[in-house]
Amino acid sequence: MPSYYLAATLARLADEMVAFTLVLLVLERTDSPALAGLTGAAYALPAVVTGPLLGAWLDRTPYRRSALALNQAVLGVVMLSLLGVVGHSAHWLTPVLAAVAGATLPMVSGGFTSMLPSLVPQDRLARANSLEAASFGAATIAGPATAATISAMFSVETAVLVIALAATLSIVAITRLPALPRAVTDGEPFMASVIGGLAHLARTPRLRASTVTTTLLLGAMGILLITLPLHMESLGMPTSAAGYLWTALEVGSVTTALLLGRLQTRWRPEYVVMVSVAAYGLAMLTWPLVGSFAVLLLLAAVAGLLQGPTMPAMFAARQQYSPESLQGRVSTTAASLRVGTAALGQAAGGLLVPIIGTHKALLVVAIGLVAAAVLGRVAGVQTRESVLSRG
Q: 339 and 72 in contact (C-beta within 8 Å)?
């Protein structure tokens, strides 16, 4: 498990640095919020298509380590290529290169997590889920903060080089992971396997509730990713200071994920997801009213504390409501939906923020989070047909 968490956290660190660093790199070299949003969207959108395919393949292959390593190799090469392209070549090349790196992105957000039920005994999964959330959180804490600090002290180009280095180190750690047997051995046709994973997500009400809420959560975060760097100007701060707000959010999130991990088993995981996301949105309603960066930093930490239970509960929902033979497909398909929605959020943010301003954009994000919880509750309503199919 130490090798697992090291490999997963390094991969996620590189990924978390990418989203923020791409925004800074494009804004610095082109001064175009629209291109910054489009590039972020291009990095994430391919996952909508590739996620279900990669998940079905992961459930059927013993070569998971090779797939995870390939993802990191592609990321490192693309980031180095972007150094020579952004601002020096036709604008369309930037999102195209980002899309190449994003094609295997579900491996980071879902491929690692899908291994947990095979690596950890059932009675230790709750603790493992908390540590897994801490892995995501640690990467999300260190990613934007590292990108912001390196960009401020050195340059955004140096931050790109650090991403390539983190990806390389992740490959080294991946080689120490155990080889796992295939989860599916019944010879089911590949496309039928893909459709099976999608169908399971769609027809399982409790899993559907969690998935809808967390998917829409990421859409709102996509808008926030574009909004925060531009909002820094109204506070008299450089755009890179937004990285510290993301850090404050994740410090709070990791704190409650670790402290409340065992307590969450007392409630159904989809309820924990919906309540924590709604609380996150309500806390964020205060952000547009703040004129001090220090106060906003404190409010971000408080919002993170409220959002912290979301990720462990999301993992628990996938594990409790899906058989082991579907873990790869469910994890990467749900991850692809989240990543794809985040991409759409970034693209929307790039177009929306220059029109309505950052204060109103923050309100849009806060209201969107509350709406995500409400729509998740609606999606989780068990229809008569689903009851009959289960019976």
A: no
The pair of structure tokens assigned to 119 is 């690596």
What separation, in Å, do the N-terminal and C-terminal C-alpha atoms of the chain show?
38
In a domain? residue 91: yes
Q: How many CA atoms lie within 13 A of 291 on its CB side?
A: 0
Record the tokens describing residue 212, joined without a space: 């809808």
Q: Write the DSSP symbol of residue 386.
A: H
Write down which residue in 186, 201, 234 finishes a domain.
186
Averaged pLDDT of the chain: 79
53 and 69 co-located in one domain: yes
Same domain, 268 and 369: yes
0.90 exceeded by the pTM? Answer: no
Q: In a 3-state reduction of DSSP, which class is residue 83?
A: helix
> Do 361 and 213 have their domain in common?
yes
Query: Which of the pair, 139 or 160, is modelled with greater confidence?
Result: 160
Closest alpha carbon to 110 in 269, 333, 261: 333
Cβ burial of 244 (10 Å; 0-12, 13-18, 19+) is buried
Q: How far apart are CA 218 and CA 340, in angstroms?
A: 9
Count of alpha carbons within 13 angstroms of residue 345, beta-carbon side: 26
To 5 degrees, how large is the angle CA 162–CA 168–CA 169? Answer: 90
Residues 195 and 181 in one domain: no
Find the CATH number of the domain harbouring 267.
1.20.1250.20
Is position 389 within any domain?
Answer: no
Instruction: Please check whether residues 161 and 218 belong to one and the same domain.
Output: no
| pLDDT in the model for residue 387 | 41
What is the number of domains present in the chain? 2
CA distances for 163 relative to 11, 13, 15, 19, 346, angstroms: 9, 8, 8, 11, 20
What's the CA gap between 55 and 302, in Å, rounded?
35
Nearest to 31 by CA among 239, 199, 244: 239
